[in-house]
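Students often ask why we bother predicting the structure of a whole assembly rather than each chain alone. The short answer is interfaces. A chain on its own may look different once its partners are present, and contacts between molecules only exist in the joint model. In this exercise we take two input lines together and write out one structure for the complete complex. Read the inputs first and try to guess which parts will touch.
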Amino acid sequence: MLLHDTTRRYQSALAGYCRSGQLEPIPGIHNEHISHYRRLVYNVVDDMLQNAYPLTHALLGATEWKNLVNEFFTHHPCQSPQVWYMPKEFYQYLVTVKHPLLEKYPFLEELLCFEWAEVELFMMEDRREKPAATYSLETDKLVINPEHQLFSFQYPVHLKPAHDITTADKGNYFLAAHRNTAGTVIFTDLSPALAIILSLLEEAPATIDELLETLEKDYGIVSSANDRQAMHLFFKSALTQELIIF
Amino acid sequence: MVGIGYRKDFAEAFLQSSTLQPAFIEVAPENWIGVGGFWNKKFREALEKYPLFTHGLSLSIGSPDELDFAFLKKLKQFLASTGALVYSEHLSYAKCDNAHLYDLLPIPFTSDAVAHVSERIKTVQDLLERKMAIEIVSYYSPVAPELSEIDFINAILEAADCDLLLDVNNVYVNSFNHRYDAKAFIDQLPMERVRYIHMAGHEQVSDTLIIDTHGEAIIDPVYELFDYTMRKLGRDVPVLLERDFNIPELEELQEEINRLNTIKTAALKQPSYVTA
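Now the answer. The structure tokens for the assembled complex follow.
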């Protein structure tokens, strides 16, 4: 080991101070200036979190937010070398420690999930291949855009301002989010049947007829002529929006 | 050649106009590795037009923690896939006790740190199969120093046999914050190792402290130190204009690039300063 324990300890003390604000004695430091490290490090983390979670930031009071960011950064060792990815760890931290704020705001976990989904989908690596030149909505197998995520929420975090959500809003909300060619993240509300259908497409590409057959056979959902027409319209729109590709 | 730090804040305007004409662009690999969609398109557009230099943020070469070999593997792929001409990093640490800090902390100026950091630079150079350029960082407080800053830096450069990224603004900032002569400091650097130069603005926050913000225009004394450095260097090296915050109109950035080019060209026509 080339690094002496004392050097290691002083480095740890400075890093610990930046994370927690608690300064252990370090020889030779400039006491008046060292606080700028804590300020600069904290600002980077706080800015990234505010950018990733603007709705959560708006929901929590200034003190609540500041305490939460402090708590997270003090107690959670951030693992990602890429700062843009760090906010995911913030969301995971709250869930892992079963943070009291998740009880105070029963929809907070879903709100964080919803906000992070937009960041992650916007930034994620390209996964799409070139689409087929010609295709038929009637006969070809539909492929779900690989740059997507499906959600099942208990609260309408995607529909209402967070401040207005109450326990009376509790229900079942299904949502798809995907990235189109321009790079825009698009959210689509789903009925329960469409949520099942898209989850089937996550497993394997299928034609509309095959999907309806599975829906009937495995879920006991029999589609009327109107349902079939509605489904065709949905997929036509989903194709335009690039939630579905060929 | 004078380049510009490619920032998302002005990427679209930059690519859509000819106002800003750098010779190359520089990015932090951490901000682009594994990124797709809109920003990947914009990055690829920029790569079609400009050579790429890179300047890392998270390698944490001065950390007491182990090197992140998974990250290094991704970094190597990124450097290869983008055809990056230079890979540089900060002589600092940004991770400790298994936690990333996302900022640059000063390494204690000690002999054991020299040995530790030099070995790590050599390991990284071996893994990446290229030399890296190490940047002298600005710092606001020494940490348990046993050596002078210049002795610490020179010992690492020598032991690691790596290149030097000379950030002239950082030397100015450090000379102000720690009360030394910036030109005398530059005189003591091994100029043959200078591969690359950074220039930037800063913010003076008190009578005794400057913070290296990259959020202001370069000030005249830093241009003057750049002129001195170029004369001392006596050869052409790539120069980068860094601007990370408070981004002005592109015309203003181009004016700074023009001024850097003018100073460099004039300095290289003059004989070097004679130093004692």
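Check your guess against this: The first strand of chain A starts at residue 143 and ends at 144.
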